[in-house]
């Protein structure tokens, strides 16, 4: 019941709660500083409630962004009894997370997660256990996943299954959530368990659906209140649902670990769980029974990877498809680039450098979607003086990633979908320092490499195969970009149509070996009969054919004839001095729509 009330009228409810809490907490909470130095400024807190009444609990990052305009890039807010220092803007977040990596590098585990994780796993842990698990996961992601050809193949294979699911909707509107989640989840499952699951396997689908629901619940106003005021626990239905999901996840995984243990071959690890079991055994064999490689750490690490590795990437892909449906002209340019450079063959990771516009669109999707707006809460590991402010050891710190991704002094159009943020004036891809959706420093997302590979292959393959449009009767303008509340920012519920894209590969016509005598040579005789008369050829189709054939064909033919003939009448064209005819390079430069000659210079010697 409390959940419902909190979701609908958080402000008025908080007013009532405030009175109760005032009585409950008055003796135990102090907002005053102990005076070691100047503390970061911030809005004046109320007793017990702190600044909660000023905060939009559904979108706290928006309120914090506004507060940063008033109080600067390092400021304090009180969430109930909890003091939080917020870091805002690219320069400040980068300075803190990179130059003061140790000081700002601890995790502040939220109450609801701590109850389950008990300091195990990677996401919510600290100290030696965190270090061991993070190192182990990174090594294994390298061995079984990131940056490896084998991983690329897994992603390509999984994307193929997703394409089949999309095709099955026959262009009818559908919600992309489940299919994209299952597909992305299978990649982390292959890395972790060593095998993928069928989308029809109810155990698998229920695990993915529950993980998704859990993320939604973790960001709900009622759970945020629970994290601050744990005594509310018994009233909060969302918490009971989370506890239920936690125990069913443990049950499923215990069964899976049991099976993997029984079939384990230490010489041939199938995935990260096998590698963990082997390491645990070898430590125990050498007499070390007190290491961090124990069952609870295995369970929580797997859970962290399953949840963090599914929801984030899947959500970003779904934002990408939604943005394409909303901005069809940008979708046109992506599809033209893919069609020119890739045609209909399978996309590979190394194609990224030849697809600058598509790459820019993926980066811009991540920037605007801003799916983890406040990172995950950090904590200071020691007293620190930062930008002249004293911050005590153990203070909760929010690196406000929204304020980096939307930083007005870094981005030309921070609040618009503007792929040109990542392109130079020649249309080449450019990296931007303030692109920080994976955070930075000691706690930077450890799945960044994998996620980037997944995003590229999924997005490009889906755009190669489908045209995404709003459901019939919904205009592009009506597609809503307001995010749904959760620990991460998801698109609000919506449906899209995925129409099949047909590629007309004109190269295969103009170079058709059964049509042209010398398809790959410059051979004007292709258009002459034996008496030297011009002949039309059916396979001459540079303007395409049919209903969508180039409508400028007549004009273009006339221009080509007059320009070419007049220029050849007046000039003799030769390579630049010192360049032989053989050295003139016919390799085309790839543009978005057209193949251009590579840069070169010619001499035009007048004939008269
Ligand atoms: C588009 C996809 C993704 C985004 C935007 C993303 C973003 C983030 C962010 C912002 C953090 C918090 C960093 C901080 O607290 O400063 C994080 C942490 C983490 N991410 Fe990701 N992530 C993505 C994909 C993945 C994937 C695929 C995996 C799994 C392989 C993963 C595993 C983790 C883990 C384990 C942590 C905790 C790291 C630690 O505390 O040491 N993430 N991620």
TrEMBL record:
Identify its protein family: Belongs to the cytochrome P450 family.
Q: Any stretches that span the bilayer, and where are they?
A: none
Example GO CC term: the record gives: endoplasmic reticulum membrane
Localisation per UniProt entry: Endoplasmic reticulum membrane; Microsome membrane
Its chief place of residence is: endoplasmic reticulum
Q: State the name under which the record lists this protein.
A: Cytochrome P450 2K1-like
Co-factor(s): heme
Which molecular-function annotation in GO is an example for this chain? iron ion binding
Q: Which GO terms describe its biological process?
A: aflatoxin metabolic process; organic acid metabolic process; xenobiotic metabolic process
Keywords annotated in UniProt: Endoplasmic reticulum, Heme, Iron, Membrane, Metal-binding, Microsome, Monooxygenase, Oxidoreductase
Taxonomic lineage from the root: Eukaryota, Metazoa, Chordata, Craniata, Vertebrata
Residues engaged in binding heme: 445
Note the Gene3D superfamilies from the entry.
Cytochrome P450 (1.10.630.10)
């Amino acid at each position: 019941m409390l959940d419902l009330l909190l979701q609908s009228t958080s402000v008025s409810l908080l007013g009532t709660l405030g009175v109760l809490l005032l009585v409950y907490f008055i003796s135990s909470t102090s907002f005053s500083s102990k005076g070691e130095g100047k503390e970061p400024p911030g809005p004046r807190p109320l007793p017990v409630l702190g600044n909660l009444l000023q905060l939009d609990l559904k979108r706290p990052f928006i309120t914090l962004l506004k507060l940063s305009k008033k109080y600067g890039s390092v400021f304090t807010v009180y969430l109930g009894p909890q003091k939080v220092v917020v870091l805002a803007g690219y320069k400040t977040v980068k300075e803190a997370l990179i130059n003061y990596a140790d000081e700002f590098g601890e995790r502040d585990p939220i109450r609801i997660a701590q109850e389950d994780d008990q300091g195990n796993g990677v996401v919510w842990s600290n100290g030696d256990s965190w270090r061991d698990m993070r190192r182990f996961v990174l090594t294994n992601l390298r061995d079984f996943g990131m940056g490896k050809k084998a991983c690329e193949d897994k992603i390509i294979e999984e994307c193929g299954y997703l394409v089949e699911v999309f095709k099955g909707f026959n262009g009818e509107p559908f919600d992309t959530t489940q299919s994209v989640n299952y597909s992305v989840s299978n990649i982390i499952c292959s890395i972790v368990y060593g095998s993928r699951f069928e989308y029809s396997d109810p155990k698998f689908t229920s695990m993915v659906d529950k993980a998704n629901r859990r993320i939604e619940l973790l960001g709900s106003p009622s759970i945020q209140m629970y994290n601050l005021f744990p005594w509310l626990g018994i009233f909060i239905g969302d918490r009971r649902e989370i506890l239920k999901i936690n125990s069913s996840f443990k049950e499923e995984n215990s069964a899976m670990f049991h099976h993997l243990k029984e079939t384990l071959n230490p010489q041939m690890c199938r995935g990260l769980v096998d590698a963990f079991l082997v390491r645990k055994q070898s430590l125990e064999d050498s007499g070390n029974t007190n290491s961090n490689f124990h069952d609870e750490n295995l369970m929580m690490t797997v859970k962290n990877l399953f949840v963090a590795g599914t929801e984030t990437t899947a959500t970003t892909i779904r934002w990408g498809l939604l943005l394409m449906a909303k901005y069809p002209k940008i979708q046109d340019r992506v599809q033209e680039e893919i069609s020119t450079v890739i045609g209909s063959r399978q996309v590979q990771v190394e194609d990224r450098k030849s697809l600058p516009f598509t790459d820019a669109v993926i980066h811009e999707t991540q920037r605007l979607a801003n799916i983890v707006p406040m990172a995950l809460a950090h904590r200071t590991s020691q007293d620190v003086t930062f930008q002249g402010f004293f911050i005590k050891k153990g203070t909760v710190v929010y690196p406000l990633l929204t304020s980096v991704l939307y930083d007005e002094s870094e981005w030309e159009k921070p609040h618009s979908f503007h792929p040109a943020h990542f392109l130079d004036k020649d249309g080449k891809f450019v990296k931007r320092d303030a692109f920080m959706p994976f955070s930075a420093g000691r706690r930077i997302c450890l799945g960044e490499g994998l996620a980037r590979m997944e995003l590229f292959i999924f997005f490009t393959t889906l755009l190669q195969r489908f045209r995404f449009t709003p459901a019939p009767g919904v205009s592009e303008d009506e597609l809503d970009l307001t995010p749904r509340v959760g620990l991460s920012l998801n698109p609000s519920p919506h449906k899209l149509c995925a129409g099949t894209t047909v590629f007309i590969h004109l190269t295969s016509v103009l170079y058709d070996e059964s049509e042209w005598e010398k398809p790959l040579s410059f051979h004007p005789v292709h258009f002459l009969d034996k008496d030297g008369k011009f002949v039309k050829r059916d396979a001459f189709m540079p303007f395409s054919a049919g209903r969508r054939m180039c409508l400028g064909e007549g004009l273009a033919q006339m221009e080509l004839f007059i320009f070419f003939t007049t220029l050849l009448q007046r000039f003799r064209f030769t390579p630049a001095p010192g360049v032989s005819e053989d050295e003139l390079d016919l390799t085309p430069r790839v543009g978005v729509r057209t193949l251009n000659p590579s840069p070169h210079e010619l001499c035009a010697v007048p004939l008269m």
